[in-house]
Design goal:
By secondary structure, the chain is an alpha/beta fold. 41% of the residues are buried. The strands form 4 sheets. It has a 7-stranded mixed beta sheet with strand order 7-3-2-1-15-16-17. Strands 8-9-12-14-13 form a 5-stranded mixed beta sheet, with no helix packed on it. A 3-stranded antiparallel beta sheet has the order 4-5-6, with no helix packed on it.
Length: 650
């Protein structure tokens, strides 16, 4: 053990080769421990709504406006505060509007440069100068650093700072500087971003959201079941591919695949238009505004039906291949009486709303036709070889997982599978049983095997587990007894559409159960929270996102426009800063153009979840605990230098 410790100290001495270097780092780390903790922003279930998502990133879930309030208080009118906030969110677009009305732009630049400098000073105040320096925009790094480190009481430099501002305006760089400092404020008000699942599906721009996340300074992602379906599709899992294409078709978002990712859907479209030419496809109406008689809408209806039938076939194949999934009751095509146009479920016969199945062979209903097989071959290759999609999925793998424990908060998208009496449910995965954290860990490992395993069977099992996570009753990201897609398309009877939730959702207010979950993931129930997404909170019906006395925070309130009529709002975001935890309820987002012209922000109400008596410091966080370990190691290195155990490298 002594030799191991000595080897470790020798490696550490490569980084800190002298007593002076080790001492300086100890002083630096110790000082950082006493800074206020950075602000964390939590979002979930953004479902492709890129305009609203982009706005929330820009305003930091209200953090920018709070900084403006902190700086100017009653010295500025509410209207001027809104205008300044909008300038910070959309500097270029806002200045384009101002220029049309403002007779003296030089004066306007001067006033707003000073205002922005004051806000940026406050935003930078909780960070070390080194961290701020790394965030500075390259073109103006030196100038901004000079301006935001100015001390009001140092009058000797007042003319120096005034001259910097005057020169920026005189040489025509004011607008570029305003853009740069506005983006710096956006960057500094949120230290770390958490995305608690479901970036994909329903909305029109998940690929745009992913581009923003790839460029974001500090982020982690807890996968949602919709995200995992896209990951499976990118890995070439055919059931996932069919689901992804079907949902894009259903919401009128096929351009995500065609324009966003460059995936060619022409063979599928040509097949659908020919095979279902005379089929009205009324069961496959889209959840998208359009003229129902338009040619594009008619084509989309047929694509929607064609890929749905292919999906039901492929899923039947997976169910037969993966017996251990125990999903035999969800293979439905062989239960249809194709002559009578009925299906028998749970001993009861139901009349189908649509009986046109030209590609289904009743003798072998799960076999793809030759054309369907060719379409799936092409789609599989397209998904696997799409560079942009693969980049996005690798980012999800690198920054994401099925759950995360961070600063005494447990983050996951769906639910921890439970039994009716609140115990952790044992779930079978490929012949072995797991529960709780162990279940999450093994499913996470299989997802990664689906991309990286060298063994062909392990890789296929990993791909299939992504389809399992998408819709299995025991999946922690799905949490219902079935996904009744077929029934919702083909049957009128409401009882066939029901999807019963896991007992977790009935027990979410049970403190004993929630404490058990927290302890399972290594947390102290006395000072921890669960941050949960997946199931929209119906605020209009009086439901609260704060569950179990504040121990569980469900922050899916309808970011997706498809859910806003049910929830009454446009989602929740969560802010955790040095003063405590706040829930922010969001108003529906009209458009970026309206936000700029009308200066309307989208957060409507803030609820304080916890408030601390003493500000939370970096030393109280996970990063702070790591720093304390580093300090102990460095102090041990100092002792080794002074005792002669390790020689300085001068």
């Amino acid at each position: 053990m002594k030799d191991l410790e000595t080897r470790y100290l020798e490696r550490l001495s490569d980084l800190y080769p002298t007593i002076a270097a080790a001492s300086t780092e100890i002083i630096n780390l110790q000082s950082i421990l006493n800074l206020p903790k950075g602000t964390e922003n939590f979002l979930t279930d953004v479902h492709g709504e890129y305009e609203a998502f982009s706005h929330v990133l820009k305003n930091g879930s209200g953090s920018v406006r709070r900084k403006i309030e902190d700086v100017f208080g009653n010295r500025m009118s509410d209207r001027d505060k809104r205008s300044l906030a909008t300038l910070i969110y959309y500097p270029k677009a806002k200045m384009d509007l101002i220029r049309q009305e403002e007779p003296n732009m030089e004066d306007w630049y001067r006033v707003h440069l000073y205002l922005l400098i004051e806000v940026s000073k406050r935003a930078a105040s909780k960070y070390t100068r080194s961290k701020v320096r790394k965030a500075l925009p390259k073109d103006f790094a030196y100038v901004i650093e000079e301006l935001i480190t100015e001390k009001a009481e140092v009058s000797d430099k007042e003319s120096y700072y005034n001259e910097i501002i005057s020169t920026i305006i005189r040489i025509g760089r004011a607008e570029e500087f305003i853009c740069a400092i506005s983006e710096l404020i956006q960057r500094l008000v949120v230290d770390h971003l958490h995305i608690v699942g479901d970036i994909y599906d329903r909305g029109p721009g998940p690929h745009i959201i992913m581009d923003k996340l790839v460029d974001y300074h500090s982020v982690d992602i807890q996968w949602g079941n919709h995200d995992v379906a896209w990951m499976g599709a990118a890995a070439g899992q055919r059931g996932c591919i069919a689901n992804v294409v079907r949902i894009c078709a259903r919401y009128g978002n096929l351009d995500i695949l065609e324009d966003g990712y460059g995936i060619n859907l022409l063979p599928l479209a040509a097949f659908a238009m020919r095979v279902y030419k005379d089929d009205p496809c009324t069961c496959f109406r889209l959840k998208a505004p359009d003229r129902p008689d338009s040619e594009e809408m008619q084509m989309n209806l047929r694509i929607h039906k064609a890929i749905s039938i292919i999906q039901f076939k492929l899923e039947g194949q997976i169910i037969r291949r993966q017996k251990s999934f125990h999903l035999e009751e969800r293979a439905l095509l062989h239960r249809i009486d194709y002559e009578k146009g009925t299906i028998t479920l749970n001993g009861k016969e139901y009349q189908l709303l649509d009986t046109n199945f030209p590609t289904v062979d009743p003798a072998d209903p799960y076999a793809l036709s030759a054309e369907e097989e060719e379409i799936m071959d092409r789609l599989e290759r397209a998904f696997e070889n799409c560079g942009k999609l693969q980049q996005h999925m690798r980012f999800l793998l690198a920054k994401g997982g099925l759950y995360k424990v961070y600063n005494d908060n447990l983050l996951y998208h769906g639910c921890v599978p439970l039994t009716e009496d609140g115990e952790l449910k044992e779930v079978e995965v490929y012949g072995k049983k797991y529960r709780g954290k162990e279940l999450y860990d093994v499913l996470d490992a299989y997802v990664r095997k689906g991309f990286f395993a060298l063994d062909e069977k392990e890789r296929q099992d990993g791909k299939d587990i992504m389809w399992y996570i998408w819709l299995h009753p025991d999946s922690p990201l799905f949490g219902k007894n079935r996904m009744a897609t077929f029934e919702r398309y083909f049957l009128a009877e409401p009882e066939t559409h029901l999807e019963k939730k896991n007992p977790y959702y009935d027990l979410i207010e049970n403190e004993e159960v929630i404490d058990r979950i927290m302890r399972e993931f290594g947390l102290d129930p006395g000072n921890s929270h669960i941050v949960n997404g997946h199931v929209p909170v119906r605020r209009k019906d009086g439901e609260s996102p704060i569950k179990c006395g504040g121990k569980v925070l469900v922050i899916d309130g309808g970011f997706s426009k498809a859910y806003q009529k049910q929830t009454g709002i446009a989602g929740y975001t969560l802010i955790y800063n040095s003063y405590g935890i706040r829930l922010v309820a969001l108003e529906p987002f009209e458009s970026t153009e309206a936000a700029i012209k009308k200066e309307i922000d989208i957060h409507s109400e803030t609820m304080v979840v916890t408030r601390v008596r003493d500000r939370c410091l970096v030393g109280d966080t996970d990063a702070g605990r790591e720093m304390k370990e580093q300090i102990r190691d460095l102090e041990r290195l100092l002792t080794a230098y002074r005792n002669g155990e390790i020689t300085e490298k001068i």
